[in-house]
Every structure is written in C-alpha cells, then in structure tokens.
Design brief:
The complex is a heterodimer of chains A (304) and B (293). Chain A has 304 residues and is mainly alpha-helical. Chain A has 13 helices and 4 strands. Chain A has one domain. In chain A, the strands form 2 sheets. A two-stranded antiparallel ribbon of chain A has the order 1-4. In chain B, helix 1 packs across helix 9. Chain B is globular. The chains are: A mainly alpha (304), B mainly alpha (293). Chains A and B meet through helix 5, helix 10 and helix 13 of A and helix 4, helix 9 and helix 11 of B.
C-alpha cells in the first residue's frame, strides 16, 4: 500500500522535472498500463489468455475520433463513456462467441476476431483506411482542453489510479472471488452451483471496456488513429507487459508496462545502438525469449 | 459472370486453399501432437519466400530445372532450421503453459522479421516464374489460365496425398496419431517421443517453407507476409478443428473459396468475410468441422 502511494506521488510530481519528451513517454506508458490492467483481469484473475486486446483498444480510439464532430470540441463526459461502450459492445460479441472455449482455441479465436476489426479499419473507408484519421478537436473536461500535454497527463494518471482501485476492490468482492474460483478449478465452481459462463463473459466485457478506455485516452493524447492500433503487435506487446510484470498481481501489470516501455526505449536509443537502433525489434524479441526462459513468473508474479 | 471466368476463379480458390492447407497442416499437427501453439509458423512461410528470392539467381531458378533445385535446397535448409529451432527453443516449451508458448514464439517472430529486414531490407521483391511453367492454358474465348498456378495446385495435391499416406499407412504416422491421443502411453511403449517431435516439427517447418517458395512467384516477396498468412491459418485451424489434418484440408479449401469469391462479389468486405465464416462455424460447431483424430 505504501509502495503504491509512493508510486502515485512520484507520477504526480514527475511533470515538474520530466520535460516534454518525458511527460509524453510517461503518458503513453500509463495508457499502456491501463491496457495491461485490462488484460491482467483476464489472464491473471480468470485464467483466460486473450490475444486480441488490441481490437478493444483500437475501437476505443477510433470511436473517439469518429464521434467527434468536424466543427467543435465535445465534452469528455460523454465522449469517453461512448468510446468505452463501443469497445464493451464488441467485447460482448467476441466474448459470447469465444468464451466457452479454453486454452489455445481461445487464444486463436480472440486473435482472429481482433484481426477482423483490424481489417475493417484497414480495408474500408469508414476509418480512413491505412492512412488513419486525425482527431480535429480534443475533448474538453469542463474548461480544460485535454489535447494539451499536462492536462492529459493528469487525466490519464487519474484514470489509471481509478481503474487500479476499481479492480482491486472488484477482485475482493464476491465477483472477484468467483473469478478466482473459475481460474483455479472451473469444474468445481460449476459443481458448487455457479453458472460460470456469465461470470467469465462479464469479466471479458469489463476487460474490453477498460481496454477501450485506454484506447480512447491514447487517441486524445496522440490526436491521430490508424489501423496499427488494432494490430496484433499491440496485443503481443501488452501480453508481454503482463507476463514481464508477473501474472496474478494487479501492480505487476503496471510494473510490466513501465519495465517493457523502458526496455523498448532502450533498444530504440540512437545514443546506445547508433544506426542499429532502427532494428530495435530484434532486441525486444530476444528479450522476450529470455524473459520466458529465465523469468516465467515475471517481476512480481503470484507464487505457486 | 460467364462460365470461363467462373472456372478461373474456381481454380484460383483451389490453388489458394491448397496452399493454405500446406501451412495449416503443419500448424495443426504441431499443436495436435506436441501441444505447442506456434505463432512463428507464419515466419517459415516468409522464410521460404525469401529463400526462393535469394536462391533463385544462384541456382538458375528461372529455368524449370533450376526451380526444382531451388526447392530441393530450400527444403533441406528448412529441415535443418526446424531441427535447430526445435532443439534450441521448442523442446523447452512442451511442459510450459500456452501463455509462455505464445510469448516465446511471438518473440521469435520479431527476431525473424528483423533478421529479414537486416538481410533483405524492407522492399517488395518479385520472383520470376520459372520459364518451364511460364505459359498459360486457353480456356476458350479470351480467358486463359497460367500454368504455374496449376503447377502449384499439383504440387500441393501431391504433398497432401503424401501426407495422407504417411499418416495413415506408415509406422511413423501411427506413432504420430498415437502421440496426439496419448503422449505418455506412446513413450511407455518404447517410442522415442523426443525424436518423434523433432521429426514432426521439422516436417511442419518444411511444409510451410515449401508453401512460401511455391507462392513467391505469384504473390511476390514482402515484409509482413508471414503474419498475414499465420492469422488466416489460425482461422483455418479453428474452422477445421484443432489437431485434425482432414479438418485443415476441408477448412483451407472453404477459406480459399470464401476469400477468392468474396473478392469478386464483395470487394469492399473481402478482408472480413473469412472471419465471418469463422464466427458462423463457431456458433454452429464450437469444436470445428472435424474433431481431432
């Protein structure tokens, strides 16, 4: 608890000395941390390995851009909930179709459905095709324009803290206990009289909604969306964050997001790798293989 | 649509479906027998295509004989690659959770893609159709069909038949089928499961690589081609039923037909149609068309 409070305090003070690049980097990482939390809910708490989280992220982002009128800024008070709702709706459809399957089937089906969303954005004129579209007006929260760096930094920090607190409370509730029961032994839960399907579906939709929130924040921060936001590299990256941080602990997901972003930034660093830095994905790929081989429990994972 | 156009599209659908089957059969076998989900399988297709591009000038791939030589050398290299990868990476994954298999093979994809970028850059390259298959067959009127595409279909059919014979008529096939049902029992009967897995994996890599080499002259060679084909193969495997080779064949032909005719009739929605097909199959038969044998 003290560590979490210290982390929030550190993040709150960071813009005072972080500089322009630092603030942008930490904002992006906090958005990814929210996305990682949404996946941790599925992978760590329910035991469902979803490889299609990028679809919900991308839908949240696209919804923000597509719902903003061409003429004026709108209030975040309805824009963000609408984006979250759109992502949750897609999660409901995908979840209803895939949640009965476990293991590899679930991995493949969620990946395929996220690629379906990717191709809709990629091939149809709806979302500007491969070029993507710009957000004409960032939404406003009261009198504050969220398009600027400092307001969106604090807005994202607040969202991250709220999602974290919400999930921490939810996992201690009857709902969270039931999810843990499903993770450990779904047969036994059924035998104990729980209909497990609605619980799993609810968790899946909740996860999609949180991923949609992350996506909508990302669109506001960048002011631009393109189909790559739904690409499976995002799904792979966020899964990596969750594993690197350690499965089974909420703070592991946040830790993983920061650790992985720093790792990526390290391999992208022109100062260290020179011209080779444009092949940063090679270093990241090797790091992923090493983490799986040497750190199967991640940095802060559940024991046993 | 007149009859000749329809015939051309049917042949295209068949050729695409058969090519998908070559890749998906390895994917489904590696999962069915070894219990490993291999995201890097699409990379082998990509590696095959780049092999065809890189080896063709050296071996005279533009002539018919040179092309056969290119494929032979490519298959030998692919088998060696498969053995090495199984030994270095995949043999550690059998006892691990699916989650870790997904991640490690995802890491391998990144490594393969960057090595590809280092070796060949990020441009799109063309590979010449070997001149022995360069002609086309008249289908009456103005329509004609390239011989090379028929050649692809022919090779794929031959390989599919070979795969069927090996799986259903040989001791190796018996061990593979038994291994997919009960690994421990096969091991206790004195069959070297480690060796079996290594052979299986190398064969899967070789099939995907061969598919890439065959496809290179028609599809050209470009970055990201492996990921694209991997996801379609996932759809094939999910529709066919995980671990079932027969299901993979049926599903691959189905996906080939839906994709090809989708591009003709609904060009706007072509990319999405195969996923709609998958959703329908999942609703109708959650286990896929064929249960694993």
């Amino acid at each position: 608890m003290a560590a979490i409070a210290a982390a929030v305090l550190a993040l709150a003070l960071f813009p005072l000395f972080g500089g322009k690049f630092g603030v942008d980097f930490v904002t992006k990482t906090m958005v990814l941390a929210i996305l990682a939390l949404s996946l941790e809910l599925l992978v760590g708490q329910v035991g469902l390995v979803c490889f299609g989280q990028a679809a919900f992220f991308g839908i949240g982002a696209y919804a923000v851009v597509l719902l903003t009128p061409k003429t004026a800024a709108v209030s975040a008070a309805w824009l963000l909930p609408a984006a979250v709702g759109a992502a949750a709706l897609y999660a409901l459809v995908v979840g209803a179709l895939s949640i009965r399957r476990r293991g590899v089937y679930f991995i493949m089906v969620t990946l395929a459905f996220s690629q379906m969303a990717y191709y809709v954005a990629h091939d149809t004129p709806l979302g500007g095709g491969t070029d993507g579209i710009y957000l004409d007006f960032a939404p406003s929260a009261g009198a504050i324009d969220l398009g600027r760096a400092i307001p969106i930094y604090y807005f994202t920090l607040a969202a991250l803290a709220a999602v974290f607190a919400f999930l921490a409370v939810a996992m201690r509730s009857r709902f969270g206990r039931a999810l843990a029961g499903i993770r450990v032994n779904e047969q036994r839960m059924r035998a104990a009289g729980f209909s497990t399907y609605p619980y799993k579906l609810a968790a899946f939709v909740l996860s999609g909604a949180i991923a949609g929130l992350a996506g909508s924040l990302f669109a506001v921060k960048d002011g631009f969306v393109n189909p790559e936001l739904m690409g499976w590299h995002i799904s792979g990256t966020v899964l990596m964050m969750v594993i690197l941080g350690g499965i089974g602990e909420l703070h592991g997901a946040v830790l993983g997001a920061f650790a992985f972003s720093l790792l990526q930034e390290f391999f992208k660093s022109h100062a260290i790798f020179g011209e080779f830095s444009k092949h940063w994905a090679l270093g990241v790929g090797l790091a992923i293989i090493l983490v799986v081989a040497l750190l199967p429990r991640g940095l802060a994972g559940r024991r046993g | 649509m007149d009859l000749a156009t329809f015939a051309v599209q049917c042949l295209n659908a068949l050729q695409y479906g058969l090519l998908l089957f070559l890749i998906a059969s390895g994917l489904t076998l590696i999962f069915g027998v070894m219990g490993v989900i291999n995201l890097a399988h699409g990379s082998f297709y990509m590696i095959g295509a780049y092999m065809a591009y890189a080896l063709a000038p050296a071996l005279g791939g533009a002539t018919g004989l040179g092309f056969i030589a290119t494929m032979a050398v490519g298959v030998v290299l692919a088998v060696a690659l498969g053995y090495a990868l199984e030994w270095a990476f995949f043999s550690f994954l059998y006892e691990r959770e699916h989650l870790q298999q997904v991640l490690m093979t995802y890491g391998l994809i990144l490594v393969f893609e960057e090595l590809r970028s280092l070796a060949f850059g990020n441009d799109v390259h063309g590979v010449a159709v070997p001149d022995a298959f360069a002609g086309s067959i008249s289908l009456g009127g103005l329509m004609s069909y390239p011989v090379y595409r028929l050649f692809i279909s022919g090779v794929c059919v031959a390989l599919a038949l070979g795969l069927y014979v090996v799986l259903s008529r040989t001791r190796l096939g018996m061990a593979i089928r038994a291994g997919s049902t009960n690994r421990e029992m096969v091991a206790s009967l004195g069959i070297d499961v480690k060796q079996l897995f290594r052979v299986m994996f190398a064969a899967g890599v070789a099939l995907a690589t061969l598919a890439g080499m065959l496809a290179a002259p028609v599809s050209s060679v470009y970055p990201g081609m492996g990921s694209q084909v991997l996801i379609i193969c996932f759809v094939v495997v999910v529709i066919g039923g995980l671990g079932s080779v027969r299901g993979a064949l049926a599903a691959a032909l189905l996906v080939g037909a839906v994709d090809t005719f989708g591009k003709v009739f609904f060009p706007q929605a072509a990319g999405v149609l195969v996923y709609v097909l998958m959703a329908v199959v999942l609703l109708w038969r959650p286990e896929g068309l064929f249960k694993a044998t």
